[in-house]
Each structure stands twice: as C-alpha cells, then as structure tokens.
Amino acid sequence: METRELTVVAGSFVGFQLLFSVASPLFSSTFTPGYGRLPPTKLTEWNSRLVSTVHALIVGLFCLYILWFDDAVNADPVWGEPGLVKLNVAITCGYLLYDLVLLATNWSTMGDSFFVCHHLAALYAYGYVLSRGVLPYFANFRLISELSTPFVNQRWFYEVLKYPRSDRLVVANGMAMAVVFFMVRIFVMPPYWARVFATFGTEAFERLGVGAQVAWITSCIALDILNTIWMYKIARGCYKVMMGASGRKAKEVSLLKQNHVNNHTD
C-alpha cells in the first residue's frame, strides 16, 4: 500500500472520529431540538449515524463520478488505472475501521454481528485494491450501495425523535429507502455478476492469482447475502407500514359512513 493511500485511510479514520465526537454534537444540538433530550446511548448512535450519512454521501457520489467519467477503469475493470478508485476505497477503509472501533467500544448498546461481518468482508477485499491496485471497477461499483444509507439512517432519526409512523415524512422516507436500497443493492446484482463472469478465464483474471480471486468472489457473495437479508427486513417493514396506513384509512372511511348514517337517522 502506498503512502498516499495509508495517509487517506488514517486521515479518514481521524476525520470521522472528529465528526462523531465534535461536529455532530454541535450540528445536531443546533438544528435538532430533540437531540439534547435523548439518553446517552441514543446520542452515541445518533452521532454514529450522522457520520455514516456523511461517509455514504461522499463515497457514493464519488463512485458515480468514477463510473460515469473514468474511462480507464471502465475499459479495463480488472487492471485499469486505479488512482481515483483507490482514493475512494481508502476513505471507506478509514470509515470502516472507525466504525469497528466504535462498535467494539459500545458493543452492549450498538453491537451488531451483521455489521461486523459486512465491515470485515469489505476490508478483506479492499485490502487487495489498495495494496495491488486490482479490480478497480468492481471495487468502486460496490460502493454505489452506500447511496441507500442516508435513507436508512433518516428512518432511525425519525423513529428516535418519536415521529408517528403514519407521518408523511416517515412514510415518504420509508418508501424512498426501500426503492433506493433495492436499486443500488439488489437490482445491480445481475449486471455486476455478469461483468464478473465475463472476466473468468481471461488473461487479466488469471494474473490476479488465487488469493485475490478468492478475496474478490467470497467477499462479494457474503455482501450480497447480507444485502438480501437486509432487503427482506426493509420490505417487510414497508409492508407493515403500508398495511397499517390502509387499515387506518379504512377505519376513517367506516367512521365517516357511520356518522353519515347517524346524522340521517337522528
């Protein structure tokens, strides 16, 4: 791993830690009155999720820029010039390390084995990208999934601030979360794996070596299994919200009809 990438990883780790401990409390207490009334454990998770949203926006938008404008990476997905991709991956690695430390130090309230598996699988694969500069297209493509994270975090913010589930903002965010999560984590699976399979047997694929090949394929399988599990949970939650909204609306219509009948019989 080059000095530049190590510097970015370390800088990201420190930067996200400062955002968590300094910037988020100041920003949140200024613009969200309910922030100061949260218990300490919720304050910790609030700051963690705000950092998560900032990271997701940075790397997600950077990912789209690379996919749209980095011709070298798109032309050679296995060995293309990885400069911008390594920068984006280094930012993500710094964030993943920061988040693992945060989870470890707050395991009793924030510990989640799924997130630990996700982070370790990602770090395992991204290590090859940073150390050898391989698979730039595929490494960058996986980061598109971060674009769903702000909606997931916003759902939690609404919940902890005790917004009713029937609130239009909550419902709209929930629907957007489900759609975006599906688009950037599930819908993209077939084209991603089609591009992966297209490299099998090629000279570029053989040059990777068994270590990189195993790290690439196994980590992708693990991440896609986790994404499928999360998608199922999100879809189930959306279904419950929609059914609840439909039930409330039917009840309101029934009451209106009953009142109308009573008015005519009085």
What this model shows, in words?
- The chain is mostly helical.
- It has one domain.
- The protein is built from 11 helices and no strands.
- Helix 1 packs across helix 4, helix 2 runs antiparallel to helix 8 and helix 8 packs antiparallel against helix 9.
- The chain is globular, with a radius of gyration of 22 Å.
- The chain starts with a helix and ends with a helix.
- The relative contact order is 0.10.
Largest sheet: none
Shape: globular
| Number of continuous helical runs | 11
**Which band does the percent of strand residues land in?**
under 5%
Enumerate the spans where pLDDT stays under 50 for 5 or more consecutive residues.
none
Oligomer: single chain
Averaged pLDDT, please?
88
Keywords: Membrane, Transmembrane, Transmembrane helix
Subcellular location: Membrane
Protein name: TLC domain containing 4b
GO biological process, one term: lipid homeostasis
Please give a quick description of this structure:
The chain has helices at residues 3-31, 40-69, 71-75, 83-105, 107-110, 113-132, 136-142, 149-160, 168-186, 189-199, 203-265. The chain is built from eleven helices and no strands. It comes from Hucho hucho.
Features:
single chain; TLCD; 266 residues; 11 helices; mainly alpha; TLC domain containing 4b; 84% helix
Could you give the topology of this structure?
Layout (H helix, E strand, L loop, with lengths): L2 H29 L8 H30 L1 H5 L7 H23 L1 H4 L2 H20 L3 H7 L6 H12 L7 H19 L2 H11 L3 H63 L1
Helix pairs in contact: 1-2, 1-4, 2-4, 2-8, 4-6, 4-7, 6-11, 8-9, 9-11
GO cellular component, one term: endoplasmic reticulum
Membrane topology: Multi-pass membrane protein
Pfam families: TRAM_LAG1_CLN8
